[in-house]
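Model it.
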Amino acid sequence: MVTKQAPDGVICNEVMIVERLRLKRELYVSIVMDRASQGPLLIGSPMGGSRTDGSSIVDVARSNPNLIFTEQIDIFDGLEVDQCERMAENIGLDPGTKAFDQTVDMMTKLYEMFTNCDCTLIEINPLAETYDGEIVCVDAKVQFDDNASFRQEQIFEKRDYDQEDPREVEAMKHGINYIGLDGSIGCMVNGAGLAMSTMDLIHAKGGSPANFLDVGGGANEQQVQKAFEILDADPHVKVVLVNIFGGLMRCDVIANGIINAANKIGIRTPLVIRLQGTNYEEAKTLIEECGYEHIMLADDLDDAATKAVSVADMIIPDDNDIFDDDDPLAISAVTNDGAVVVEGVAKIVPDRVPSNTRRVIPKFEGFSL
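Modeled.
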C-alpha cells in the first residue's frame, strides 16, 4: 500500500471491509501535542477528507490557513464545552442540530481518550455528516507516547512491527535509540546532543548521515555490538563514524564492542572512530592491536568527519563479488584496487569473516492504529 506517509509502500497483511456511506460533507478534527503552546491543541477545519483535486488537509493549511481553526487546551482545566461548541461552529455545523451536539460530545470524549491513553495524536479525517444528519468517524489515525508503554500494555500489544522500519524495531528491542535516515554515513554516538552536532558536522563537510544512533551512557558491549550489526547490515551505509565522549560511557567498552562485532559478524564497512574521555588510552590500544586496518582512529571530531566523508565519496558498488552476497544494492568497502583511501592514504582492507547478507531496507514513516 502506497500513501503519502509511506511513499515506497508497505506490505498490507489485512483488509478491513466497512459499510459504504453517502456523505453530505467531510470535516476535519484532531488533537495533537503542540510545541508552541506546550500542551494539547484541538484543530478543526470544514475542509476535511480527500479533495477531488487530490489535495489534503496539509494543502488546505498552506493554501487556505483561514480555514484551519485551533483551540489551546489547558491541561489543568481540560477541554471546555464552550471550546468544543466554538470549534463545531467553526467547522460549519449549526448550533441546535443533532450533528452539532454529536460533534461537541465526540470532541469531549476524544480528549478523555487523548489523556487516558497517553496519545500524542488523534486525527479524524474525515469526520463526516451523512444525509440523515448523523456524524460518523470515517477514518482515524492515533499515535501513542512510546514512553507510556509500561502503563498502556493492552494498547501496545496491538502494535504491528511489520509496518515499521525493521532497523528501528531491532534497535528498540536492545534499548538503542535509532532513527533511520537516507544518507550514506552511519553514525554511532553517545548522547542525543552530541549525535545532533555530529550529524551537523557531517553535513557541513559535504556528507549525509544515514541514521541517528544514540547508545546512551549506560550501554554494554552487547548493545554496542548490536548497534554495529544494524549499521553494517544497512546497504546504504558506506562508512561508520563513531563519536564517543567517555563520561558515563567508558571508551574501552565501545572498543570491545566494536572488536567483538568485527570478530563475530565480520564488519565489512570502514569505521572512523573518535574517542575521548574515560579509559581512552586503553581503548586506543585495543583498536590499534585488533588487526583490522579498516578501523581508523581520528584525532578529533573534525578530523573524524573529514575522514568519514572522504571514505564515503570513494566507496563504489561491489562489482568483484568480494562479499558472498546477491544483493544488488550491496555497497563494497573498497575502491577498484581493493583499498580505502582517506586523505590520500590508501589502506588495504584485509580478508574479512563472512558477514550476514545485507538487507534491502524499505523506508517507513511510522505507524498508526
